[in-house]
Amino acid sequence: MKTTAKFWIYLEKQPLLCYINLVIVCETNRGEIVYLKALEIQGFKSFPDKTVLNFGEDITAIVGPNGSGKSNISDAIRWVMGEQSAKGLRGAKMEDVIFGGTEKRAQVGFAQVTLVIDNTEHIFPTMEESEVSVTRRYYRSGESEYYINRQSVRLRDVTELFLDTGMGREGYSIIGQGKIDEILSAKSGERREIFEEAAGISKFRHRKEESERKLERTEENLVRINDKISELELQVEPLRDQAEKAKKYLVLRDELRLLEISVWLENLDALKAGARKLESDFHTAESQRDEARAALDALYAEGERYGQRMQEKDMEAERLRAQAAELDSRVKEQESAVAVLESTIAHNRENIARAQAELEETDSRAGGLEKQAEEQEARIAEIDREAETLNAALDALLAKARAAAEQAGGAQSQAETLRGQEAIATATAADARAEAAAIAAENGQITERKTAVEADKAAAETQLAESEREARANRRALEDARDEATAVANIIAGHSLRMEERKKKAAAASEQRVKLTMDVGALDDRIRLLTEMEKEYEGFSKAVKVVMQAKNSLRGIHGPVANLMRTDQQYSLAIEIALGAGLQNIVVDREEDAKSAINFLKQRDAGRATFLPLTAIRGDELRERGVENEFGFVGIASRLVKFDARYQNIFNSLLGRTVIVEDMDCGIAMARKYRNAFRIVTLDGQVINRGGSMTGGSTSRSAGVLSRAAELEKLNGRAAAMHEKLTTAQQAEEAANRELTAARYELETAESQRRQAEDEVLRLEGTKNHFDILLRSLRENLENLEGELESLSGRLSDNAQRAEQAEKRVAEQEALAAAYRAKAEEALSGQSELLAQSGALTEEITAKKTDLAALTAERESTLRRAADLRQLAADLTGDREQKEETVRAYQGNIDAAGGEIEQRKTAVADLTARGQALQERLRTLNEEKIALEAERTAKNKASQEMNENLLNLERAASRLEQKIATNALEEKQILDRLWEHYELSHTDAQAQRIELESVPKASRRIGELKRDISALGTPNIGAIEEYDRVNGRYTYLTEQRNDVEKAKGELEGIIEEITNQMTVIFAEQFRLLSESFQTTFVELFGGGTAKLELEDENDILGCGIEIKAQPPGKTLKTISLLSGGEKAFVAIALYFAILKVHPTPFCVMDEIEAALDDANVTRYARYMRTLAGRTQFIVITHRRGTMEEADVLYGVTMQEQGVSKILTINLNDMAKELKIK
Q1: Which residues pair with 586 in a beta bridge?
Q2: Which of 120, 125, 127, 123 is nearest to 151 (CA)?
Q3: Which of 97, 295, 503, 1086 makes the best surface tag, with the fewest CB within 10 Å?
Q4: Strand runs (DSSP E) across 679-761, as ranges?
Q5: In the beta sheet, which residues pair with residue 53?
Q6: Cα separation of 682 and 575, whole Å?
């Protein structure tokens, strides 16, 4: 110990080697583990020169006197691992880490430290290299550079490389008094950093804090960006509008410039080219116009020839139509006759049918009568049989009566005889009664038949009377129809004559109307041409046209001088020459109106015009004495025109000092006499100017606007009369056509009436024939009925006489029978039985006799009835033959009519064929007429086209003449315009000329561009650049805001994820650290207890950590209540506990054992040795116990003031050489 103490004192004086030897005596061999391989320092604090420390053993001790620069090595390691706090490096500012120079050495410009770490065990998982070098360089200018394996990186990359390895600047790989102070701090929250690094969540904490800082910066940026965006939004929209307007203006202006220059040059070229052609074109147009007129006259003549040929065709067609009408009439007559014959046939067939029906009825009646006669004859036979039976019975009764009489004897015989006589009388009475009954029955039948015959007769008389009446009416109608047919034929003849007259009248009216229509059309075309030219201001300059077209939008515009005056046509040329360009001067109300119009022309680049304000123009007339009396004087020009009184000053100014004379000779004489004091114009347009100059030559009398106006006025005057004549001609033609139509209708109506009358005559004649036959039949039938009725009346008279006689016989016989009965009763009085028998027999005989008499009477009546029926049947048979003869007559009529029909049909066929031939010829004529009409239409169309062409040629000639006058003026205006607008000569403008697709299209585009530019107003050209700047900034900030908002969301998610991971990891690692701390504390202190506690287990990531320790023999206390040495030892125990749980590859300890006594230093050093197998230790120390455990000693000395030097001794190697075990 004494040697060591002496050596230590000696070492402090200087020699280091003896001290090392003493240490070697106490050293033993150690195992090897190397993580930190080297440390290279240059320009860092007290190490100006490049200094390299190679670390090759488990424990390396760095020793040296105070102030020699030992701790600068610890600071260098801390600095190269990313320390950013100058205070943590024991400096005031970061520049203090650079060697500041001494009296003998100059300061250096940068500080550089390189740390070389072995990575064979992949302590850096992100690095594949087996060795990792980390370099930091700092310049006095404040710039920092970081390198990993000589590759330039960011501070963040270096920080992230060391995170969760325990080696970071915030880790526990570098433990100095500051770290011990953190552990010993009374604030438990300040201890968290070491625990978090030990728990392996420093990387998470760092990422979380970085994310939170980023989130805070992001939110700040977002607020700042939103403020800036809000501010820019107030600017960008107005600027956008202004910039777009300005850009559009520039584009439109440039395009307008090029188009206007090109169009003007195109127009100029066209004017120059046109100027060379105008004169020849004008003469060509005149010759073409004359040729067109001649061709038009030829077409008109040819059209008239076609009309004449068509008229000839019409006349031939009319003749053919007349023939066809005659044939058609004859065909219709034949057809009417055929129709009548067919009607006659139909009537005859009806009569035949009716006669056949009557025959059938007669046959039916005859059959009925025969049947009835047969029935009567059968009844007669039956009566005969019944009479025979009654006669037999009667004979038997008579025989019985005779026998009874014989039986009765004389009286009885007498009575019987009387009875017999009575019976005979009774029988005779019965026969008479039966005859009377038969007569009565026959009278009934006759009466019935008579009634029927009388009814038939009445019907026949009625039918005959009706038929006679109808026949008389038919005869009257037939006579009327014949009269009507005759009258209609006369009417048709009259209508035909009238129709021919009206056709001629209609043709003449149509020809007159066509001629007037052509004349009026030509007149109207000329008026329309001149009117269009006036309306379009043809002959006026472009400027005048533009102003007049905008008259409604400009104030005070009256019009050009030419439109405000009228003159006679004989003066128009002279006045037009006298006015010259003044014709196109525009009269306005005031000077302000002229100014507005001029600005209007300037804005539209429409040329130049002269304006005459009424308020400014003053003028007076020529007052030379005697001029009016000069030979050839026509008048003062201002007095030869007509105008509104308010324009007096205008025309006095323009024409008041101009004299119109008849010819040039008169003008020259007048000019000489008055010494050329005024201007003189001749009627043919020659001019003697004031002063004596003369202007003249050829000129057109119809080219000027005044000539045009005079002609238009004259034509308008003629047009009214011509239109009136045309209207009259049209009305006359319409009236003639109406009369022709009426005549044609009347003729057609009359012909129709004639056909109807003829048809009616034929029909009525057929009806008359029918009535003749019918009446003859009815009269014959009536005669038969009258004969039958007379016969029936005679029979009734005979039957009445017979009935009277029968009744008389009945009375006589009944009286005789009563007498016989009385006598018989008298004779048989007293013989009642016999009388009764005789009476009964008599009654029976009487009954039989009565029956027999009745049968006899019935037989006679039946026999007569049968005879009558036979007679009637015979009569009917006679009628049938007559009716059959009538039917045959009807059939003969039908056959005759049929033959006549065939003849007439043949005639109709022949007439029809002739009519078809005529119709075919008419069709041919019609086709020829259509062809002629088509040719005439073509000629008319050609005439119209030629007329239109003529109008176009006239218009072209007029326009060419006007263009000749205005062409030069327009050329000058274009050149003036180029200079006024763009200060370009013709040559310079050619250089800027572009090729145009078409001038009209370009002109339309120019108009559009001007309207667009005008609509833009006054653009702010500077707004373009300002908008680009502001909009670029706005777009950038908007995109940045989107990125920041997205980053904010991502950061919030990352923070939440990191917090969850930290919570889980820290809870587990804190438990392990607490357990390790208890074990380490016992091992270092040789007993006692210690523990770690969280102040708030619900906030394990934010709460403080309380350290409680109970050294052996003491009570449990918080660390703040321990002594200074105990606190330091507890802190060292905690660091060792952390290294046990999470060993760091290397650990730098800077005099952390300074507060310990020697015994505890030895414990500290030996415990450090137990950990050296997993952690490489670099200790900066003054304590002997620590040095004894070191494998390598680095001595730091400062032989030169302010400059540290390193001496190195490997104690293990030296021990081997000295063979110390």
Answers
A1: 560, 611
A2: 127
A3: 1086
A4: 679-682, 687-688, 694-695
A5: 39
A6: 9
CA distance 47 to 326: 153
Q: And the tokens for 751?
A: 């012909």
Cα–Cα distance between 851 and 856 in angstroms, integer?
Answer: 8
Question: Which is it for strands 1192-1200 and 1176-1180: parallel, antiparallel or unpaired?
Answer: unpaired
Which tokens in the block code for residue 551?
Answer: 């008259």
Distance CA 1081, CA 857 (A): 188
Structure tokens, 578: 């006298």
Cα separation, 971 vs 278, whole angstroms: 14
Residue reference for tokens 């003469």: 283
CA distance 904 to 762: 14
**Both structure tokens of 598:** 């001029």
pLDDT computed for residue 22 by the predictor:
38
Q: What is the DSSP letter of 98?
A: B
DSSP string, 1100-1126: TTTS-EEEEEE-TTS--EEGGGS-HHH
Q: DSSP secondary-structure letter at 247?
A: H
Whole-angstrom distance, CA of residue 1006 vs CA of residue 1053: 61
Indicate the residue type of 889: A
Largest distance between two CA atoms of the chain: 245
d(CA 251, CA 1024): 12
Average pLDDT score over the chain? 79
pTM of the shown model: 0.37
Give the model confidence (pLDDT) of 920-966 as tens digits: 887 887 888 788 777 777 777 777 777 777 777 776 776 676 666 66
Q: Which of 900, 338, 783, 776 is nearest to 768 (CA)?
A: 776
Distances from the Cα of 410 to the Cαs of 417, 418, 826, in angstroms? 10, 12, 13
Residue 981: which of 549, 543, 607, 600 has the closest Cα? 607
Phi-psi category of residue 461: left, alpha or beta, with phi > 0 → left and psi -120 to 50 → alpha: alpha
Sequential DSSP letters for 939-967: HHHHHHHHHHHHHHHHHHHHHHHHHHHHH
The string over 317-354, giving b where at least 16 C-beta atoms fall within 10 Å of a residue's C-beta and e elsewhere, is beebbebbbebbbbbbbbbbbbbbbbbbbebbeebbeb
The CA angle 790-794-799, to the nearest 5 degrees, is: 145
Span of 130-139, 191-200, 223-232 with lowest mean pLDDT: 191-200
Buried b (16+ CB within 10 A) or exposed e, 458-494: eebeebbeebeebbeebeebbeebbebbeebeebbee
